[in-house]
Amino acid sequence: MTTTIERPGAAVRATPQAAGRIGLDQAVRNTLTMARRGLLKIKHNPEQLFDVSIQPIIFTLMFTYIFGGAISGDVASYLPIIIPGILVQTVITTSIVTGTQLREDMDKGVFDRFKSLPIARIAPLSGALTADVVRYAIATTITLVMGLLMGYRPGGGVVGVVAAGLLVMVCAFAISWIFALMGVVMRKASTVQGVSMLVLFPLTFMSNAFVPADTMPGWMQAFVKINPVSHLVTAVRELANNGHAGMDLVWALVGAAVIVAIMAPVTVRAYMRKA
User: Fold this and answer.
1) Which H or E element spans position 109?
2) Do the Cβ atoms of 216 and 147 come closer than 8 Å?
3) CA distances (Å), 38 to each of 62, 69, 132, 191, 266, in order?
4) In degrees to the nearest 10, what's the CA dihedral of 201, 203, 209, 212?
5) pTM for this entry
6) What pLDDT is stored for residue 88 in this prediction?
């Protein structure tokens, strides 16, 4: 009788090798499973939705009633300007959470436990990015509903509004790759959030999101004209208010594609080194 003794840890070392041979179809399934995990975290920790549920309401009320009369003469005239601006500002800001939660999971050792599972190594990262799309959808819906309750009547109709919402979500998903990279390479979630806000706030406030660019100083107008957020806001306004798809829509989509083309491989490479 012959007895075969396995070396301790042999099965564990075989797991990453098996994961390396995982096909695209299983990688997609693993990604969706991890995305479901992210949604379950929200279910058990609903305060994670405070930024996408409370912030749109507060910002819409505050900016509309503070600046509406001064900029457009009355609130009703200001709504077609401010609602698309608030929509872009809220959804893009929401994408910061991708990086902070990714960093928190890595600090807690959650991703270390995923290494021992026979899943695609990229699934925890791609699943987190996919789950955040739900957050963008919630922020978009709440902002638009709030605008409608306040009297906003978009001339682009249902098709224009839906197209504007999808455009913002696509661009937010693209930008989330930047914050995901920050979450991978930075050491603390608080640092990721602080640096992200430092970068994002000037881009959103130094744009045409809240006031017309022609009311700004000349040097700031020059920045606003090349600011990618301004192109996105203009595209959203044209779609929602007029149902028109102009060059700003093209620039917004091209910008999103360029960000993904550059940042996705860099983020994945950095993540794989950590994973």
Assistant:
1) none
2) no
3) 31, 42, 8, 22, 23
4) 120
5) 0.82
6) 93
